[in-house]
Structures are given as C-alpha cells and as structure tokens.
Please model this.
Amino acid sequence: MSAKETAEWYLTAAKNKVSVKASKTLVLGVLAGLFIGFAGLASTAASATVESPSIAKLISALVFPAGLAMVVTTGAELFTGDCLLIIGVLQREIKVLQTVKTLITVYIGNFIGSVMVSLLAYFGKIFDNYKTQMAASVIKSASAKTCMGFLPMFVLGIGCNILVCIAVWMSFGASSVGGKICAVFFPIMTFVVCGFEHSVANMYYLSAGLLAKTNPDYLAAASELGIDYSNLTLSNALLYNLLPVTLGNILGGMIFVGLLYWFVYLSKH
Model:
C-alpha cells in the first residue's frame, strides 16, 4: 500500500474508531495499556543486571517493540497512535468532539491497563528478581523520569510520538502479521535508544516505581546502588512527566505526522 493509499484508508479507520461505543473503546484502551506495560516490564527485566548503560538501553530497545506489535496486530487502542485521528478531523470526516472523546477514553483505558501491570508485577514479586536488582532498576528508571523538568520532557514527548506514529503508519501498509511486526520494530527501537518519552509507557514505569518505593527492601536495594529517589513522588510524576510528555506526544503525533501527511496526500490546497 502506497503512502497516499494509506492516508485514504486511514480515513475509514478513523471513522470506525470514533463510532465504537465508549465502553468498548475503554476495553481496547485497557488492552493496549496492558501490552505496553508488559513490554516495559519485560524490557526492565532484560536489562536490570546489565552494567553498561548503553548496552542496557539497547537490550531494552530490542524488547520494548513487542508492546506496539501486540497493539497493532490485535486492534487495541493506544493513545499515542490515535493522535493520527487528526487526519480525519482535517479532512472533515470526523468531528473534533468525537475525536476528543475517543482520545480521553483511550487514555483512561491505557492508564488502567498500565497500572494493572504494575500491580501484577509488584504483588507477583517480579521486582524481587536478581536479588532485588530488578526493584532497584524500577525505582531508578521512575526517579530519572521525574527530575528532568517540564520542558525537556515535553520535547522528548514530541520526538517519541513522531516515531510511534510513523511506526503505526508503516504498519498500515503491511497486510500480514509478520509485516506489521517488522514495520513497528525499528521506529520503536529507535525511540527507546534515543531516550524519548512515551506517556503510556510512563504510566507503567512511574506507577511501578511508586509501588516499589513503598517496599523497604526495595528502597534499601536502591540506596545501596546510590540511587536518588527523593524526586519520585506522585505529584512530580504527574506534573513533571505525564503532563508534559502527554502534551509532547499530542504535538508530535498530530502536527509532525498527522498534519503533514494529510497536507501532502489528502489536502487539495
């Protein structure tokens, strides 16, 4: 499927997305949150004991694309990818209110699914792996995401969703499951290696870190490694990560991918 054909096909997909009942959209959002959360958990487990930061990042990047692969091949709804709904709005195929309602519903579903994975990992004692090195890694990752400031997180959110939406766009052009998985792999690997920020993934990473911080043994393991977790609070997680990253994701997906592809392939101007 050519890029123009993909753009035309997506108009039909967009109309279908906003016409689904809110309850079903919510469930599809929960599923996507679960898939991304599982990918985040797996990428941490795979890299937790790797001493070299660059190699650890690469290992995480090789594992994390599994999350979006599950999303695009099962029809789940992911907030970041659904920012492409702007194409339907610009083409006047769907209404702004429909789009906002769908995105909010999906975002809530993604949050629920992501936190469910954190709860499963915590109470399933997955964070105990590698003599609690896993827990220390979880706390370290979450702490790092709460101390960079609003503007850097906003910018990193932009970069992330350019790549995520490109990955989703590429998957539209593949007709087979294998083709879709291959299509999403490299853009997602790139965003993880670069250190860009994904709002739904962070719903897992931050909630996992906050949960791990409630366990004295996990805190002790983090302290032994010299990890500063003083900035890891709920308010910092929301105000200095999720908020700016979400706004950046919206800008990156809607403007740098959705708007530009609409202008090139669908706009009559």
